Every structure is written in C-alpha cells, then in structure tokens.
Amino acid sequence: MLDKILSSSFPGVFSHYLEKSSHVIVVFFDDKNIIKDYNPAFFRLLQDPSRKSLKGENVTSYLFGKSKKLISFSSDETSKKVKLDFVLAADSTLPVECYLYKINQGFLLIGERMMQENEEVLEHITVLNNEMANMSRELNRKNRALREAQSKIKVLSGIIPICMNCKEIRDDKGYWNQLEKFITEHSEARFSHSICPDCLKKLYPGKSDTIEDE
User: Smallest Cα–Cα separation from 112: which of 128, 95, 96, 132?
Assistant: First the structure.
C-alpha cells in the first residue's frame, strides 16, 4: 500500500527512496489515526522487538505529550512541519522533525531522524575518546618505565685515557684511578677478583688450580 501512496504523492525516484530509506521515517494513517502502513525506518525508530507489526495501532500511542495533538489538521491545511516526540520502547523519547501531508486516503507523515544520527555520532565520538584516553595512559606508563630504566643505566662512551703501563685511567678532573674504581663509578658493573691460569703459574708456581673469586 505504501509504495502506491508514495508513487501517487511523490512520483519518480523520490518515492522509492522514501520507502527504502533507513533514516527517513514514513507513516501512513487514516482520519482516525490508525496506522495503515509504514516503511522499515519507522519500525526501527521505535526500537520495540516485541512487535512484529504496527499496522492497526493508533499512531498517537507512539507520541508523547503535546505531540499527540500536533498531527491534527485545520480545515484549510494540507501540509505542515512539526516536531514530534516519539516514545521509544526503552521508555525514552526522541524528537523528530516531521512533515505532515493531507492526502485523499488519509495522512502521510515523513520525518528525518537527524536527532538519532547526532546521538549516534556523539556515542561514536565518546567511544573514540575513551580509546584515545586508554592509549594515552598506556603510553604514559611505558614512557615512565622507559625513563626509570634509562635512569638506572650508565654507559661509558667516548675516548678514555688509560696509562699504557699501569693501566690506570685519568678521570675528567685529571686524577688517575685504578681501572676497577673508574668503571665502578661510571657504570653499574661490579668486580669480583680471581686470577688467570698464566698469572697463577707466574705468581704461584706449582699451584694447578685457579684461586676462587673474591
């Protein structure tokens, strides 16, 4: 029924668009406000999965407050623009900008679901903001861990002056230090003392085992 009504009221491609649109709601009802037909967008708007059909229902039962009276026409009106508050299944209301047309068979309501689209956009933005906040917290956590790790690392770099005979190292203040002391003060390395096999034979002849680390 709806396709014939739209074709007669809005000839051409526009009638097909209204019938199939997912954002524009279309409802046809008679002079007693009984719903005769509607497009899928109107059914989805009400968010009521318990109903399989809205045909035969009074359209005012889905309107809130003063909206119930706004769908009536005066004798000289053939069309008008109104904002209707629709009652959703979740016990909430949704304002929709609508156009009402008086036609031979009854009345045609066409509304744009802009408010719902805006809510969906805001919900999507909120989700993205939450994801960004979580990513930012994780990045800050990793940066803190990196800074803590870097603070514990001492790296020796550049040219280090070392005595070619005794192997002491000259620090940036001009003092000569034992190799172990210099490395200990400029890195996280620590020394244990032992003796290599060659030195063991030279210093302790006849001793075959290495001396234990100290």
Answer: 96
Residues in the chain: 214
**Residues 94, 45 within the same domain:** yes
- Structural domain containing residue 27: 2-118
pLDDT at 115 over 50: no
Same-domain pairing of 108 and 185 = no
User: Cβ distance 122 to 84 under 8 Å?
Assistant: no
CB 41 within 8 A of CB 24: yes
| 161 and 95, same domain (yes or no) | no
- In degrees, rounded to 5, the angle at the alpha carbon of residue 36 between the alpha carbons of residues 35 and 40 is 85
What is the Cα–Cα distance from 34 to 30, expressed in whole angstroms?
6
Note the pTM of the prediction, 2 decimals: 0.48
CATH number at residue 69: 3.30.450.20
